Amino acid sequence: MDTNASSSSAVILFGLVHRSLRHVVESLQQRVLAPLAALGDVDVFFHSWDVRQIVNPRAGELDVAVSPEDIARLLPGARGVIESQDAFDAAIDWEPMFARNPMWHCTRDEASARATLMNFRRAIESAERAWTVFEQQRTRRYRRVVVARPDLRFIDELEVPAELRGPGPDERGGRVLWAPRHHAWGGVNDRLAIGSEEAIGVWCRRTAFADGWLLGADNQNSEWLLMKWLARNRVEVRPIDLLFQRVRSDGTVARLDAALAPVGSARCD
């Protein structure tokens, strides 16, 4: 592996990568990959679960068929793995987590709270495994790394921070990342971040910390958890203006995101 930091970028996708990819890939290409490509080469890495049927009543997704093959079709050249979600689920002792389930704050009943907790735990497991894929399949160092959930339709174009634009390591230290102000919910947006390899590595590897939180959580949310994890690891978080809409597997937009407009334009209240 070339150990010299270059002007290249890496993008790491995690979760159910194929869930909404056909609905959002154009915005990913135009508003994230293209700005990165203007600075140098871009490599895409991913980890995905092998789910083919989406049942998520909280998001209004009721038995929607999806295809893991969409990843290779829509993101040719991406490097990654698709693994069994059922095997992961069978290896986890869920009941102690359900006993103090922090997901009650955003759901209406126990079944929804349990499903939300499981989806959260699956997502952060996938992020950690995506980081492993990145470390195993990379062939060079990267000046900047973006980690993102692949169910986002970007409204604004990613503006790469000045500190990450030049070649070589960040002279002011590697433990800095940038996250959208949007959807921070009192913590740190946990759907997207851009930063150094070191900082994004911390972002991706929080499963053990999250498991401890799930066993004794009160009313905190996942964004609070990420904020605490980054602070514990002395990662500085800087805000950026980057709006996106969360898009479901059937192409519908999350209700709270429907009226979003690009930064600097007129917006609906």
Order of neighbouring strands in the sheet with most strands: 5-2-1-6-9-8-10
Number of helices: 8
Low-pLDDT ranges: 264-269
Task: Summarize the amount of helix as a percent range.
Answer: 25-40%
What would you call the structural class? alpha/beta
Per DSSP, what share of the residues sits in E-state strands of 2 or more residues? 15-25%
Order of secondary-structure elements = EHEEEHEHHHEEEEHHHEE
Largest sheet: 7 strands, mixed
| Overall outline | globular
User: How many angstroms separate the termini?
Assistant: 50 Å
CATH architecture: Alpha-Beta Complex
What is the CATH top level name? Alpha Beta
Rounded average pLDDT = 91
CATH topology: Spore Coat Polysaccharide Biosynthesis Protein SpsA, Chain A
Radius of gyration based on Cα positions:
18 Å
What is the gist of this entry?
The protein has 269 residues and is α/β, with parallel strands linked by helices.
Write out key terms for the chains shown.
269 residues; seven-stranded mixed β-sheet; two-stranded antiparallel ribbon; alpha/beta
Explain this structure to me?
With 269 residues, this protein is α/β, with parallel strands linked by helices. The chain has a single domain, classed as Spore Coat Polysaccharide Biosynthesis Protein SpsA, Chain A (Alpha-Beta Complex), CATH 3.90.550. It contains eight helices and eleven strands. The radius of gyration is 18 Å and the shape is globular. The N and C termini lie far apart (50 Å).
